[in-house]
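ugh ok fine here u go
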Amino acid sequence: MTTQIKPNKKEVTRERNQKLILNAAEQLFSQLGYEGASMSMIATAAQVPKANILYYFKSKDGLYEAVIDRIIAHWNLGLDNVTADDDPATVLYNYIKSKVILAINEPLQSRLFASEILRGAPYLQNYFRTNTRP
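structure:
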């Protein structure tokens, strides 16, 4: 007999709240920029108390970093199955193709990423320094 594990109510609530917050933050950061989107605006859009944002993400910077991390993780899903034996030209072609499709299907993510670049990539500089190999 198999025992089915019920999800912890706190965990379900946490995951739901974080997703609501990240979705609202992605939209507002994309539309208004980092400086234009306030924590209060994000809380209102996510329909959660502002304190929840600070509880889960500690600061506006922490929230912004989580949004960018989520975008990068989504964009990099296509690289999960790449091996050292794969043809580099094919890998690059497939990667660029997937990015174009994502840009069409997820325009807010592309806009936010472009905005980060135009701001001088303050978060991405640190991200790539700590998450990529030379």
